[in-house]
Model the fold of this input.
Amino acid sequence: MSAALLVIGIILLVFGFNAYHSASSDISRFFTGAPTDRALWLLIGGFVAGIVGFLGLARK
Done:
């Protein structure tokens, strides 16, 4: 389970970085000063899943 969470976290981070550097995120940053909500949620979800998966593997 922990390994799966770690892999899912890495995948979400990759998608989040791609969404963060997309054209729609650039336009959103231009007008609002912040990237799109989708990019932020992917980055946050990937970070949390990756940390939980890593801690689960480190604890065993």
In short: The chain is about 85% helix and 0% strand. Helices lie at 2-20, 23-32, 37-59. The radius of gyration is 14 Å.
